[in-house]
Amino acid sequence: MEQSTPWEFSDDRGRLAVAGERPYRIVAYIQAGATLWDHGIRPVGLFGSPHDGAAPDPAKSGELPLAEIGYLGAGQALHPDALLAAEPDLVVAVTYDGEQVYGLTQKAAEELEAHVPLATVAVGPGRSLAEVRERFAALAGSLGRGEPLGAARELDAAEDALRQAAGGAVRPRVLALSPAGPERVHLARPGSWPELRALTEHGVGLLEPAAGAGLNWSTVGWADAAAMDADIVLMDVRVNAARPEQLRTDEHWRAIEARARLLPWNPEAPCSRRAHTRFFRLVAETVREAAGRV
Known about the structure:
By secondary structure, the protein is an alpha/beta fold. It has helices at residues 30-38, 80-85, 106-113, 129-142, 151-166, 194-201, 222-226, 251-259, 273-291, and strands spanning 7-10, 16-19, 26-29, 45-47, 70-71, 90-95, 118-122, 173-179, 184-188, 205-206, 217-221, 232-236, 261-265. It starts with 6 loop residues before the first strand and ends with a helix.
């Protein structure tokens, strides 16, 4: 009789997740689940963050078949028992600070870890986009799966296209933001977001908010955002962000909308070659178009 091989993975909190055999039933934070799906892994359950509601956020779900995978809750409505009821062999989540399991309270994470292995991947400011992508690839590889063979080649081509588009004589001004409502907006600090740092490294002209409070965001009024004269706006499309139609009572938002090309941006997109290829291609195309209008 063939013996099972023990499985282990050193996660980004510095903890070793261990199982008697390779896990197959995986419950995941929705961003992590969407990433695993791109590597050929189908989660048996998903959970959200404190910003999410009773239904999964489609912006975070990538290509997951949400109608076929159970959503186990988010925020205060999420209890370890709900995750354990899905009978997982492994729980996969993300961490922003290398300590906290995002989407779970410390108490809930400890209760969960007493029953099932829990592995996190760091997605915060300390990691480059490529490093985040490779850590998820390493986790998927330990689970016996990986991305399609052509994915690396397609990503290389998308990065080349982005560099060419951003390297022209005219460099459009790009602002990433998350609308809080008609009166306030969160402006992203590019250095705090791996995908925004990647755009900068490829030559895209990301605008930097004024120094001040807020590690990831600078929260200001729409007049301040309009004064930055962006040609392209990367706009948060998660469910917790206000929609354009909610903002049109503000004249400064109307000025932004009239001037800039609006581009959907998901700060919690899947961390796979496939997802990053789509993002880079979209930005490259938009930069080329904007350069012709500036």
